[in-house]
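Section: protein folds

Sequence with per-residue tokens
===
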Amino acid sequence: MTNIQFDQVELFKALSNEARLKILYWLKDPTTHFDTQRQGIEEMNEVGVCVSQIRDKLGMNQSTTSQYLSTLQRAGLVEATRIGKWTYYKRNEQLIHELANFIGTKL
């Protein structure tokens, strides 16, 4: 592994939920999975997807969505950016790459 360290147990716990896996899948290609008219394509690619769009796509309430995103963030799988009253999420591609490498070489 390179210089990224991660808590394996926390990471795999975060991945053990279908809704959280969906969020990671959708965030891999946000312009395909989210409404680009509600949020610009450039904004999605730069800062991430607004939590309200993730909530709407999940079809869950704000509290549950926030808990799922918080779990992913604690594990390092997503990064949050706050702009005004809105929070945007995007994948931490470097950590995900390291995780794939870890699984391929260590497990």
